[in-house]
Specification:
Layout lengths: L6 H13 L6 H9 L3 H22 L7 H29 L6 H16 L3 H6 L4 H13 L23 H6 L7 H6 L11 H25 L2 H4 L5 H7 L9 H28 L7 H21 L3 H30 L3 H7 L1
Helix pairs in contact: 1-13, 2-3, 2-10, 3-10, 4-13, 4-14, 4-15, 5-13, 5-14, 7-13, 12-13
C-alpha cells in the first residue's frame, strides 16, 4: 500500500492523532499530581517533544521496523485504540445516551470507522480537514467561559509539591502520544519536500498552545480538590456556559469530540495499514473487519468489568516507551549497524 503526503497533510494527521483521544481528560490527570505546577511541567515535556521531533527529522532515514518491532507497535496501537473506544463509549453513555447498550454504541461507532478505513487511503488522509472549523468553534466556546475563571488559581507556583508531584511530568506525556507516527509517516512525504526546523517549531507551538489552553482553563475554573472528582473537566466547563443558540453546549461539543475521535481512529488505522500492508496481503478488508470486531468486543468487556480506569492510569507508561524510548533505541541500533531505510527497502 502506497500513499503520498504533503507537509500539511502530515502534520494534520499528527495533530488529530495527538489530540483526538485524550484532550478532554488529560487535564485532571496532570493537575491532580502536578497541582499549581501543571502548566510548567507540561511546558517542560512539550519542549522535550519539540526536541524529539527535531531529532526524528534529522535521523529519520535510520528508522525502519523489522518484523518484531512491527508486531510490537501493532499490538500497542490496537491496545491504545481499544482503550479509547472504551473511553469514548463511557463518555457517550454518561453525557448523551445513558439508556443505550454500550455494545450498540460501539457497533455504530466502529462501523463508521471501518467504512472510512477500507476506503482509499486518500480518504483517511484528508478526512481531518472537516475538523478544522469544528476546532475553531471549540476555541470560541472555550473563551466564552472567561468570566467564570479565576486567574489567581495559576499562582503561586512551586509550593504544593507532594509525593506524587513528579507524576505530573509523566502524565503530561499523554498529550504527545502518537509522536512516533511522525517518523513512520515521514517516508511518505513527496520526494522533493523537506521539513524545516521552522515548520516543526510552528507545529509544536500550535499543539502545545492547544493543550496549554485546556490545562490553564481547567486550573482557573476548578479548585484543586475538585479536580480529583471531575473526569472530563473540559466538558464540565462547557456545561456551565449558557448561549442562546444551543441549550446544552457540552452536548454540542461531545458531538464534535465524537467526530474528532472517529477521525483519530481512522488515522491510526491508516498508520497500521501502512506498516502492516507494506507488502500485498490477501483479504485486507476482511482483516480490518476482524480487527474492528476484536476492538469492539474487547472494549465492551472492559467497560462491563470496570477496567477502563486501570488502563487509562497505566497506559501512559506504554506511551512513554513506544513514543519516546523505542524509536530512539531503533534509530541508535540501526545507525550503529549502518543500516538506512533505503537499504532495508532494497533488501526486502
Amino acid at each position: 500500500m502506497t500513499v503520498q503526503l504533503t507537509k500539511v497533510q502530515l502534520f494534520l494527521l499528527m495533530f488529530v492523532m495527538q489530540t483526538g483521544f485524550v484532550y478532554t481528560s488529560v487535564q485532571n490527570l496532570i493537575i491532580e499530581h502536578a497541582h499549581r505546577d501543571a502548566t510548567v511541567q507540561f511546558l517542560v515535556v512539550a519542549f522535550i517533544f519539540f526536541l524529539q521531533l527535531l531529532f526524528f527529522e534529522r535521523v529519520h532515514q535510520y528508522f525502519f521496523l523489522n518484523s518484531f518491532t512491527k508486531a510490537l507497535y501493532l499490538i500497542y496501537w490496537t491496545l491504545y485504540i481499544t482503550i479509547f473506544v472504551s473511553y469514548i463509549t463511557y463518555v457517550l453513555t454518561s453525557w448523551v445516551f445513558p439508556n443505550t447498550p454500550t455494545i450498540v454504541l460501539i457497533g455504530i461507532f466502529l462501523s463508521v470507522c471501518l467504512y472510512a478505513s477500507v476506503s482509499r487511503p486518500e480518504t483517511a488522509v484528508n478526512i481531518g480537514v472537516v475538523l478544522i472549523p469544528m476546532l475553531f468553534l471549540f476555541l470560541i466556546f472555550m473563551f466564552l467561559t472567561v468570566p467564570s475563571l479565576n486567574p489567581t488559581n495559576l499562582l503561586p507556583l512551586f509550593y504544593d509539591r507532594s509525593n506524587t508531584w513528579f507524576m505530573g511530568f509523566v502524565y503530561s506525556t499523554y498529550a504527545f502520544g502518537g509522536a512516533e507516527t511522525y517518523i513512520i509517516l515521514r517516508k511518505y512525504l513527496f520526494k522533493n519536500e523537506k521539513v524545516s526546523k521552522k515548520v516543526i517549531t510552528i507545529y509544536s507551538i500550535i499543539l502545545t498552545s492547544f493543550y496549554l489552553l485546556a490545562i490553564s482553563f481547567t486550573l482557573m475554573y476548578f479548585a484543586l480538590d475538585e479536580i480529583k472528582i471531575v473526569p472530563e473537566p473540559i466538558l464540565y466547563i462547557l456545561h456551565s456556559v449558557e448561549v442562546t443558540f444551543v441549550k446544552r453546549l457540552d452536548l454540542f461539543f461531545v458531538y464534535i469530540w465524537l467526530s474528532w475521535s472517529l477521525v483519530t481512529i481512522v488515522n491510526y488505522v491508516l498508520v497500521m495499514r501502512l506498516v502492516y500492508f507494506e507488502k500485498k496481503i490477501k483479504s485486507p478488508i476482511m482483516k480490518q473487519l476482524v480487527f474492528f470486531t476484536l476492538v469492539g468486543v474487547t472494549a465492551n468487556l472492559w467497560i462491563r468489568f470496570s477496567l477502563l480506569e486501570f488502563f487509562t492510569n497505566y497506559l501512559v507508561y506504554g506511551t512513554i516507551f513506544f513514543t519516546f524510548l523505542l524509536p530512539i533505541i531503533i534509530i541508535i541500533l540501526n545507525k550503529v549497524r549502518g543500516r538506512t531505510l533505503s537499504e532495508s527497502e532494497k533488501s526486502s
